[in-house]
């Protein structure tokens, strides 16, 4: 019983396959000759239905053409394929279509004002915001202000262009725009995100937040105020003498002023952050480009050259009172930090 | 003509590029076609020329003015044109009482005419009569030749070769499967050649390969073969010569048999077979248990030996 059903299934599968292929199969007595590089097919079969009579029906010719084309297409589809992104570069499209570059004049005759006006720019010939009569289109709300609508559209266009320009600039200089990434209120923002949003909101006034009052229980923001403080030129002589003697004492002492463990940990944390950021960027780029081969340099990339500079910078920053005398000790610290990492 | 034979030294980069485009290369540029109107070209012939020009768009030149020449009598003007516009294919249309609706297709080698075939247009149905359809430009057409007449006579064979050369378009290594747009169909039957062009529609079939539907597009011509001027065999052969650098390099030590298997030949130095390292048979490796028992056996053997020696000594004592 089971054997019979298996046979039936197989027969049914075969019939299904044949049905599927029926639409593309063509029966010919002699095989055609194909030249796939030239997209050419030569049919040697004598055209049977067409021999009699002078007037050849177009339908017969068309059927013959269709059959032969189907066979050629079957052959073509058997060739190995790959998916390629298509982009025409270097003016290929224009050359293909036979489009020639047209020269446009700078000035255009403006009937309305009766003078030659610019094609674009200040006091241009056809400025749609300057029209005194606008017909209300049939589909629009009759109480809508069409003039205001045009002015609003223009403002939006200008703002969009400005945004794109700044984005291009940031991309060119490889800096990051201050993004409004976490600023739109969702229901689920963390305390940090809300705090950040609050900070940004406070500073986004014309006076950059100088005259903003704090909320009742809001704490003073830390890290505001002047970034660097300089001592006055003529001041406390005693304090100055004390600080200078202290510096000399430090220079003479043998103990290193650098806390090696702290410095190494800070360095490690910095490196980890950098790598995480790079990985995030790479995965983002990979998703965006759909897994296309990114620039090879990025993929193979070892530590970017800036990292070496950063390393030096980091150490230099720590040693505010540093002097070249500590150079050797500094390097010693670095090595130790490396060992600790492993 | 004299000015064209003079060797010009380029003074600008643009001129240099221009001359470089025209000079002979290892793999030549795509052949350009020039479409010329003869002395009394009538509207049918002009329409055909314009249509063919549209098909060959970036690689063709259409001369708008009428040129009173006859290709079969005098080929110098054709050669002059081809030198000037760097075209190696041409199509010349004319009309007179003796040969109505005449079309001469030909090709050049080294700016000299080698093949020329004259065809008469018997019936011509233009684009406008069929439907207002857009002509595809710059795409590679599918060429179909039906009927066994194309192999019977030498004339027909050359005609087929010429038509392929004329209409095939640029040589590419890859094609975009969705970009196949139109089909040119030539049928040789009863001494006539039916030229039809169809637009290609790919329909869904059950499997990956689509089902083809054709829609009539473009001009349909019924052609009759008139005079021919074919190149002699040795001239033809010399024109087909491929430069040595382009010939595919034969790989040594590789052979194929009839079943498609590829065989390679390796040349080895003489080996000392006694010093070969054969495969390590894992099964023959000593298990740790075995090793222990072996050690124990060895130990017990040694102990036994010692005991025996001692025993002998004792006995001797």
From TrEMBL, chain B:
GO cellular component term, pick one: nucleolus
A molecular function GO annotation: rRNA binding
Transmembrane segments: none
SMART domains the UniProt entry points to: Brix
Highest taxon listed in the record's lineage: Eukaryota
Keywords, sorted A to Z: Nucleus
One GO BP: maturation of LSU-rRNA from tricistronic rRNA transcript (SSU-rRNA, 5.8S rRNA, LSU-rRNA)
Similarity comment: Belongs to the RPF2 family.
UniProt name for this protein: Ribosome production factor 2 homolog
Naturally occurring in which organism (per UniProt): Myotis brandtii
């Amino acid at each position: 019983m089971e054997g019979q059903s298996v046979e039936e299934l197989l027969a049914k599968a075969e019939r299904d396959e044949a049905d599927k292929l029926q639409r593309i199969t063509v029966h010919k007595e002699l095989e055609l000759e194909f030249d796939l590089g030239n997209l050419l097919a030569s049919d040697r079969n004598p055209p049977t239905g067409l021999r009699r009579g002078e007037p050849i029906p177009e339908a017969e010719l068309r059927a013959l053409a269709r059959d032969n084309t189907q066979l050629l297409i079957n052959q073509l589809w058997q060739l190995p394929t790959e998916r390629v992104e298509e982009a025409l570069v270097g003016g290929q499209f224009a050359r293909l279509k036979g489009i020639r570059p047209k020269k446009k004049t700078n000035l255009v005759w403006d009937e309305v004002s009766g003078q030659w006006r610019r094609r674009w720019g200040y006091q241009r010939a056809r400025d749609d915001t300057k029209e005194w009569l606008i017909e209300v289109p049939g589909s629009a709300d009759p109480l809508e202000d069409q003039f205001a609508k045009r002015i609003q559209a223009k403002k939006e266009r200008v703002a969009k262009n400005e945004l794109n320009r700044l984005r291009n600039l940031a991309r060119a200089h490889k800096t990051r725009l201050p993004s409004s990434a976490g600023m739109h209120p969702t229901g689920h923002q963390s305390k940090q995100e809300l705090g950040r949003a609050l900070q940004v909101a406070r500073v986004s006034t014309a006076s950059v937040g100088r005259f903003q009052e704090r909320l009742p229980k809001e704490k003073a923001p830390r890290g505001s105020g002047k970034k660097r403080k300089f001592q006055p030129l003529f001041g406390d002589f005693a304090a100055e003498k004390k600080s200078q003697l202290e510096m000399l004492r430090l220079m003479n002492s043998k103990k290193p002023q650098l806390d090696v463990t702290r410095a190494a940990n800070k360095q490690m944390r910095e490196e980890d952050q950098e790598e995480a950021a790079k990985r995030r960027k790479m995965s983002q780029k990979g998703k965006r480009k759909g897994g296309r081969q990114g620039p090879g340099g990025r993929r193979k990339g070892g530590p970017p050259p800036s990292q070496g500079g950063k390393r030096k910078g980091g150490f230099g920053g720590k040693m505010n009172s540093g002097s070249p005398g500590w150079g050797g000790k500094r390097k010693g610290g670095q090595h130790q930090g490396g060992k600790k990492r492993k | 003509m004299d000015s064209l034979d003079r060797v010009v030294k380029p003074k600008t980069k643009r001129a240099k590029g221009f001359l470089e485009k025209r000079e002979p290369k290892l793999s030549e540029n795509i052949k350009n076609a020039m479409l010329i109107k003869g002395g009394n070209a009538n509207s049918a012939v002009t329409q055909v020329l314009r249509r063919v020009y549209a098909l060959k768009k970036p690689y063709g030149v259409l001369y708008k003015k009428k040129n009173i020449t006859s290709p079969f009598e005098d080929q110098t003007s054709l050669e002059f044109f081809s030198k000037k516009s760097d075209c190696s294919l041409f199509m010349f249309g004319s009309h007179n009482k003796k040969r109505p609706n005449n079309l001469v297709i030909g090709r050049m080698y080294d700016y000299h005419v080698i093949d020329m075939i004259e065809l008469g247009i018997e019936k011509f149905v233009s684009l406008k009569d069929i439907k207002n359809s857009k002509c595809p430009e710059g795409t590679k057409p599918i060429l179909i030749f039906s009927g066994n007449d194309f192999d019977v006579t030498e004339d027909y064979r050359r005609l087929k070769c010429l038509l392929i050369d004329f209409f095939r378009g640029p040589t590419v290594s890859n094609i975009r499967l969705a970009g196949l747009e139109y089909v040119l169909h030539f049928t040789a039957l009863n001494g006539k050649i039916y030229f039809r062009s169809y637009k290609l529609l790919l329909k869904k079939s059950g499997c990956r390969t689509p089902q083809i539907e054709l829609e009539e597009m473009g001009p349909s011509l019924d052609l009759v073969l008139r005079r021919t001027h074919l190149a002699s065999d040795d001239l033809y052969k010399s024109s087909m010569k491929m430069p040595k650098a382009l010939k595919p390099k034969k790989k040594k030590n590789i052979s194929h048999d009839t079943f498609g298997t590829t065989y390679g030949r390796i040349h080895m130095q003489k080996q000392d077979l006694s010093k070969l390292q054969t495969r390590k048979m894992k099964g023959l490796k000593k298990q740790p248990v075995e090793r222990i028992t072996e050690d124990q056996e060895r130990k017990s053997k040694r102990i036994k030996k010692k005991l025996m020696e001692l025993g002998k000594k004792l006995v001797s004592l």
